Amino acid sequence: MGDLKVSYITPPGSDQRYAMIAEGDFIAIKDIISRLDVTLLEANSEALKELAEALDIRARIASGEEETFPEDIVSALVAGQNPVRVFRKWRGMTAVALARAAGISQPYLSEIENGAKDGSLSVMKRIAELLNVTLDDLAG
Fold first, then answer.
1. Phi and psi, residue 124, nearest 5°
2. CA–CA separation, 36 and 28 (whole Å)
3. Neighbours of 62 (CB within 10 A)
4. DSSP code at position 64
5. What is the pLDDT of residue 41?
6. Residue 50: pLDDT over 80
7. Which residues are CB-contacts of 2 (< 8 A; sequence separation ≥ 6)?
8. CA-based Rg of the chain, rounded to a whole angstrom?
9. Rounded CA gap, 83 and 22, in Å?
10. Angle, nearest 10°, between helix axes 95-102 and 121-131?
11. Which residues pair with 19 in a beta bridge?
């Protein structure tokens, strides 16, 4: 079966999203499932859900829908560095450029990055959008 490649489609006029896989992968999965004991499936339904979620995340990463962060970024965040500063530097933006794009003063951005101020919700939303991260990513 190898790497499972998944494509997603949403038919026109539908809000249902469908996952498509290669026929060979479908046949292999169908064959595996047909050989499994139903009670085993029931006992491990939570593990199967987690596996499905993991496969979905893997497919979203492969398609570019989901982004992963390099180890040095994760390490900086785990070490307690300010997420706004970490993501700003990773995206190659200066504090002046980010402040200007967010419509705030550079000293205000500096206070956010130094932890002196939290930043209003609207400002943090703009910063998150500019850095292409979620508000949760900036919450630290």
1. -65, -35
2. 13
3. 13
4. T
5. 65
6. yes
7. none
8. 21
9. 40
10. 120
11. 8
